[in-house]
Amino acid sequence: MKVGVFGAGAWGTALAYTCAKSGNEVIHWGFNNIFDGLIDLVKPENVHRTGDMTKLHDCEYWLIVTPAAFFRETVRKMKEVFNDQPILICTKGMEGESGQFMSEILHEEIPECKNYGVLSGPQFAREVATGIPTGSTLAGNEIVRNGGHIALSELYLQDSTDVIGAQLCGVGKNAVALISGYLTIKAHGENERALIFTRAWDEIVDIAVEMGADCGTFLGLCGVGDLFLSATSPTSRNFSSGEAIARGAPVTGTVEGIFALRGLIHRAEKLGVKTPVLCEMKEKMSL
């Protein structure tokens, strides 16, 4: 299969390489033809890099792997070359200003796209790129899931139809990982850290229930699996950024947890869901 991958950071590069190792021809797009993710790893021969989106027009399946902050801008450009491909959203996050999920932005910008889904799970980019066993939730309709299994056959994929729930898990774990890192420094003890951690996750599940998501999704790879990985390890950018905020150190680059925390609170307010812990942590971190 010919697969188009949009996004040339570490995660986009990891997925491009995984698609290639899965036996696909990969056209890998980077903004301004810049590829700055995992540059020390050897690129598979069946990954072809380009800064020209028109090269992805005839791909049979698309993966979007841009940061949440640049997702809408990228999708608007993609619309010009869209050719009814199934689209797999691999970005975990929310738009901070609107509180919209990536699937909502995609539907808004490319309304003619009917086959889209979400990839979410416990995935550190470098480990995925180097072939370390990794599992993810693949949420979407049958067309999207079938294409995903071909594009990413190197991964263990757990099928789901709960697109909103999978996205809430990805967004929520980003926010909770940020909070967890902050609490590693600021909490008075492990008991307090566990208390706040759990209450914050409960508030995210409350949002999910109000949106009609399946609570069982939160027990899968995109839920507790990703939460365990991201909220307990300094390898997680969100966790380490939370630690940096607690120490008063500068935070550079894109930190999805910051956008996620803002977006979750914004969405909860619209839904009438109370999130006192998320709001308190946002205030304490001055976000």
Widest sheet: strand order?
A: 3-2-1-4-5-6-7-8
The CATH class of the largest domain is identified as: Alpha Beta
CATH topology of the largest domain: Rossmann fold
What is the end-to-end distance?
Answer: 43 Å
Mean pLDDT value: 96
Structure, described:
- The protein has 2 domains: 2-160, 3-Layer(aba) Sandwich (Rossmann fold), CATH 3.40.50; 163-284, N-(1-d-carboxylethyl)-l-norvaline Dehydrogenase, domain 2.
- It has 11 helices and 8 strands.
- α3 links the parallel β5 and β6.
- The relative contact order is 0.13.
- The chain has 287 residues and is α/β, with parallel strands linked by helices.
- It has helices spanning 10-21, 71-78, 102-109, 125-129, 142-151, 163-186, 190-210, 221-230, 237-247, 256-271, 276-284; strands at residues 2-6, 25-29, 47-50, 61-64, 87-89, 116-120, 135-139, 156-160.
- The chain is globular and about 55 Å long.
- The protein is 47% helix and 13% strand.
- The termini are far apart.
Secondary structure: elements and pairs:
Elements: E1 2-6, H1 10-21, E2 25-29, E3 47-50, E4 61-64, H2 71-78, E5 87-89, H3 102-109, E6 116-120, H4 125-129, E7 135-139, H5 142-151, E8 156-160, H6 163-186, H7 190-210, H8 221-230, H9 237-247, H10 256-271, H11 276-284
Parallel strand pairs: 1-2, 1-4, 2-3, 4-5, 5-6, 7-8
Antiparallel strand pairs: 6-7
Structural descriptors:
about 290 residues; alpha/beta; Rossmann fold; N-(1-d-carboxylethyl)-l-norvaline Dehydrogenase, domain 2; 8-stranded mixed beta sheet; about 15% strand; globular
Concise overview:
The chain has two domains: 2-160, Rossmann fold, CATH 3.40.50.720; 163-284, N-(1-d-carboxylethyl)-l-norvaline Dehydrogenase, domain 2 (Orthogonal Bundle), CATH 1.10.1040.10.
